[in-house]
UniProtKB/TrEMBL annotation:
It is an enzyme of class 2 (transferase). CDD domains: AdoMet_MTases. PANTHER family: CYCLOPROPANE-FATTY-ACYL-PHOSPHOLIPID SYNTHASE. Residues 155-391 form the Polyketide synthase-like methyltransferase domain. It comes from Streptomyces coerulescens. InterPro entries: CFA/CMAS, CMAS, MeTfrase_dom, SAM-dependent_MTases_sf. Belongs to the CFA/CMAS family. This is Class I SAM-dependent methyltransferase. GO terms for biological process: methylation. Keywords: Lipid metabolism, Methyltransferase, S-adenosyl-L-methionine, Transferase. The keyword Methyltransferase applies. GO terms for molecular function: methyltransferase activity. Residues 415-434 are annotated as: Disordered.
């Protein structure tokens, strides 16, 4: 009799101590769990072994990327339900990883071992990155950036749409187009920085050139954009040429630590600082401070995590680190502000746009799902599954306030104390582009 789903459900509930909120369909066709709930499809016994040999988030991620696990029904609902078991069980409840290591749970573990078949650890999917640690040298940073961004410009065009902006958009309302929201975000950055003709802007982590093109075309500023990705740089240079802006915009493959032609009047860093690393953040802030003229402004747009009571216990997200952003590290916004001020900046404004990123990510997921077959052809089935999972899970993380995103505006205020900021700085909320 086909009963793998029943046995799997019973053993998992025995380990976790709570009912499973999703329905299970196992490799033998059997089903168990609440009717009408999203279905966790366990395609093979290997999925069980992955969970046993790497309990918790990474084991589940490996099973997902390899296609051993799937979800039928609403992806966001399923992830939200599973998050309560894997990531958010609270201070008084054990995580799945802790439970599977508990001596009292050995009977259930033995049952899962029998259900999973041969007790051999499956090899990780080829999309998983192996690295020596969070070194954040120029060499390791370049390799990490290449892993994430050199997936293929055609793939990113599917996900990001025509704007080719890979950071949080700024939505006038939820029903706006992604292109409108991304244009509004770039315009907001330009207004906060106060760029105008005759000024020089350094765009750190320029991506596919969207900020550089917008600032040069709409505000007449001269821009140097830097990235560590060869594919991004080639794409950005073509965009600059197509826009007729080669006299205004230069795109370089360059580490921010190697920029030597300052000072600049303004610096934008949009979605780049997450790659810097906690141990290197003061160095990052020092470099940008040195590259700015006195009175120059920095706009630092960065994802932040929630602070913990015991910061020493913070651990990097295993799935994100292994499959998405190798060596990426999130810091609380307070830590970012403190490090910028230690470097000599005067922080003038902090704006949280957390809900905007959730809207952005849901649009990206919809783009990927709508052109799934082509996305798989351009990369691999595993890579496409990585992106779908991480973007959907990230959307929920922003919606549930597990992570946030902030624009921090800082000034290299001169000794005279004249910051050059208007008395009512938030007039930038009004559209002022030419």
């Amino acid at each position: 009799m086909a009963d793998a789903a029943v046995r799997l459900k019973r053993l998992l509930e025995q380990l976790l101590g709570v009912p499973l909120p999703v329905r299970i369909r196992a490799w033998d066709g059997s089903q168990a769990g609440p009717p009408g709930a999203p279905i966790l499809v366990v395609h093979n016994r290997r999925a069980v072994r992955r969970l046993l040999f790497k309990p918790g988030e990474l084991g589940l991620a490996r099973a997902w990327v390899a296609g051993d696990l799937d979800i039928e029904g609403d992806l966001y609902t399923a992830l939200d339900l599973l998050a309560g078991l894997v990531w958010e069980r609270g201070e008084d409840a054990r995580s799945l990883a802790q439970t599977l290591r508990d001596p009292e749970a050995r009977a259930a573990v033995r049952g899962l071992l029998r259900l999973g078949g041969l007790p051999l650890p499956p090899a990780p999917p080829p999309e998983e990155v192996r690295r020596p640690g969070h070194l954040h040298t120029k060499r390791t940073d370049k390799r990490a950036i290449s892993h994430h961004y050199d997936v293929g410009n055609d793939f990113y065009e599917i996900v990001l749409g025509p704007s080719m902006v890979y950071s949080c958009a700024y939505w006038p309302d939820p029903d706006s187009t992604l292109e409108t929201a991304q244009r509004d975000k770039l315009d907001l950055v330009c207004r906060k920085l106060g760029v105008r003709p005759g000024l020089r802007l350094l765009d750190v982590g320029c991506g596919w050139g969207s900020m550089a093109v917008h600032a040069a075309r709409e505000y007449g500023v001269s821009v140097v954009g830097i990235t560590l990705s060869q594919e991004q740089a080639a794409y950005a240079r073509k965009r600059v040429a197509d826009e007729g802006l080669t006299d205004k915009v230069e795109i370089r493959v360059q580490d921010y630590r190697d920029v030597g032609d300052g000072p600049y009047d303004a610096i934008s860093s949009i979605g780049m600082a997450e790659h810097v690393g906690a141990d290197r953040y003061l160095e990052y802030a020092d470099v940008l401070h040195r590259l700015l003229k006195p009175g120059g402004r920095l706009l630092n747009h960065q994802i932040a995590r929630r602070p913990q009571r015991d910061e020493s216990s913070y651990e990097v997200d295993e799935f994100i680190d292994a499959y998405v952003f190798p060596d990426g590290e999130l810091q609380p916004v307070g830590s970012t502000v403190a490090q910028l001020e230690r470097a000599g900046f005067e922080v003038r404004d902090v704006e949280s746009i957390r809900e905007h990123y959730a809207l952005t990510l849901r649009r990206w997921v919809a783009h990927l799902e709508a052109d799934w077959a082509r996305a798989v052809t351009l990369t691999s089935i595993g890579r496409a599954r990585v992106w779908r999972l991480y973007m959907a899970a990230s959307a929920l993380a922003f919606e549930r306030n597990r992570i946030g995103v902030n624009q921090v505006l800082a000034v290299r205020t001169p000794e005279s104390g004249d910051s050059g900021m208007p008395l009512r700085a938030r007039k930038w909320s009004e559209t002022q582009s030419r």
